[in-house]
Amino acid sequence: WDHPQMAGAGRGRLAPGCGGGSWPFLSVQSFLLAEIQESSNVTYRVYDYNRVDKNGKKRELHFDKAVQVMEMKVTSNVNKKSRMVKYYPGCSRELLCRCKYFETERIQVTKGFAFSVMDSSFQVLMCLNGYGEVQTMDAEQKPMRFSKGETMFLPARLGRCLVVGDAELIKVRC
């Protein structure tokens, strides 16, 4: 960034990364840095920690190709938009960021809430505080328990889900 801004409690910043890659989102209390990546079939390796392949050779780097697709413009500060918290029985939900690649919201679960993971893409839940579990409509699927600091990957086609517990979550829908 040419002019980085500090993120404070409850504030966020969307900063685009490489054109086909990551979109870090800075957010909430203390400090959370969540790197959200769009799905891609292309990876340009710009640094590889001196790792080697199965033959003992350093892996190829793609710095020039990566520079060609980088998006270096900083988007507007997401704090400039008015924040709206919607209250429902069992939870409150606040949209933190929405762009053409993903949507991020903060959810305060007091009892529970339902949502669907559709066929088109996965979703991610990050537990900032508290505990709970994700239940699905599939009787053979065991509930996925979570607590503070844990992240859950919910695959596409999971269907209807119910989150129960007492937790603060970040939910990412791609």
Show the helix and strand layout.
Blueprint: E1 13-14, E2 22-27, E3 32-37, H1 63-69, E4 85-88, E5 91-98, E6 103-109, E7 112-117, E8 123-136, E9 144-147, E10 151-154, E11 159-173
Antiparallel strand pairs: 1-2, 2-3, 4-5, 5-6, 6-11, 7-11, 8-9, 8-10, 8-11
Task: Report the radius of gyration as a whole number of Å.
Answer: 18 Å
| Beta-strand percent range | 35-45%
Q: Span between N and C termini? A: 24 Å
Gross morphology: globular
DSSP summary, beta strand count: 11
Instruction: Catalogue the unreliable spans.
Output: 1-6, 18-29
Task: Describe the protein's architecture and organization.
- The chain is mainly beta and 174 residues long.
- Helix content is 4%, strand content 44%.
- The protein has one helix and eleven strands.
- It has one helix spanning 63-69, and strands at 13-14, 22-27, 32-37, 85-88, 91-98, 103-109, 112-117, 123-136, 144-147, 151-154, 159-173.
- Strands 4, 5, 6, 7, 8, 9, 10 and 11 form an eight-stranded antiparallel β-sheet that branches.
- Strand 4 and strand 5 form a beta hairpin.
- It starts with 12 loop residues before the first strand and ends with a strand.
- Mean pLDDT is 79; it is low at 1-6 and 18-29.
